[in-house]
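Lesson 9: reading folded outputs for more than one chain in a single document. The general rule is that every protein is listed as its sequence immediately followed by its structure tokens, and records are never interleaved. Here is the first one.
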Amino acid sequence: MAALLERAAGAGADGEVPVAAAVLDASGAVLADGVNGRETGSDPTAHAEIVALRAAGSAVGRWRLDGCTLVVTLEPCAMCAGAAIQARVDRIVFGAFDDKAGACGSVWDLPRDRLALHRPAVVGGVLEAESSALLRAFFASRRRERPYQQP
């Protein structure tokens, strides 16, 4: 998680929301990682988790990532939690909780939904203070640079 926080900070410096993700194999080795790329790639689906899951699928040569763990600095949203479920990851580990869009326990709880096709284990709050501080600093900086103006 500490290494992902460094990657996330780099994405923040590039103007992306500072979130990073990695997919680990069953032994804990990193198969792939990624950072948010929505702004730089003009891609609404380029969340760090999606980038990492796509790269991991390419690395192993299949879409099923059973036995793998998705680690991310921010609680996955509905799209990313759904992608992790579809990829059949065994576990989702995240740092900061997302009280606005989190889908692994905060707003929704897709991985634990009794109707879910696959139910990965979820561990939240890993280096939560550091993950939250990085996000708060990023958004505070953005508000100073571009104060909100009503249309």
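And here is the second record, again sequence then tokens.
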Amino acid sequence: MSRLSYTYRGLIVPVLTPFNNDGSLNLDIIPQYATYLAKNGIKGILVNGTSGEGMSMSVVERKLITETWVKAVKETKQHLMIQVGGAPLPDVIELAKHASSLSVDSILCLPELYFKPTTPKQLIEYLEIIGKAAPKTPLLYYHIPMLTNVNIHMGQFLESVGDKIPSFVGIKFTSANLEEGAQALHADNRKYTIFLGNDQLINAACALGMNSFIVTSGNMFPELILNLLTVCKNGDMLKSKDMQEKLSSAVVAVIKHGNWVETMKVAMTLLTDIDTGLPRAPLKPISTEAVTIMIKDLTNLGYQPKVKHC
């Protein structure tokens, strides 16, 4: 089988999973969520990633979320990437087959999280299994070492893949190590798509030649990020630096109050009309005091957060 082509470039937003107050899935809000992002220029969606709390849901729930987003993007025509990893291998295989059967645009996969791979060869062998489960769907690897503790060098890994996984097209690179990111970008004659997953290094990554990003702040600040990418593309480094600083200040104002997902869910409710509810255990809601400070900080940065009733 020849290698699958993968043409999507630019911005993908990892969506938050909406939960009701009792912890059950709130599927009803997803069409509105998709429309909100589409109206704000977001052409790509990642489902069941870190921000989507994919690893906190059952296989049945992950399938339901995927199916609901598949229906939603039929209307909005957005690129749909589904994260299938972070579960026992039989479940990952099942999730990959399920996503592929729904003709999603791409699948993203974490490494095995218990019997962790320690070499490029072991990681390739794991991804080969996922690739065989969904041979017709472009496959990307999800590199997020601060959460997985899988520290395989992405430049070396991509140089080693060759033709072993015909469906393999690239990685989501969630790391601040742009030296490694640049090596990944240039691996095997720039064969692979590299999505940077770091909201605070977009302009620096652009300067290195990266053109694709998966960043959670795109949920709340889509216009700022799309404008930043345009300025970067035009080569205006001074303007892009200012815009990056504006984005980073907003991100820091949000995430200083707790875990990434816990705080981003609050920001989503404060800054948009999409209420994604509380995070799922083991994560916890942030304190009322923290929400008050976040509102004040975002207001001082020029945003108009709604007053949140906890």
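What the second record shows: The first strand starts at residue 11 and ends at 14.
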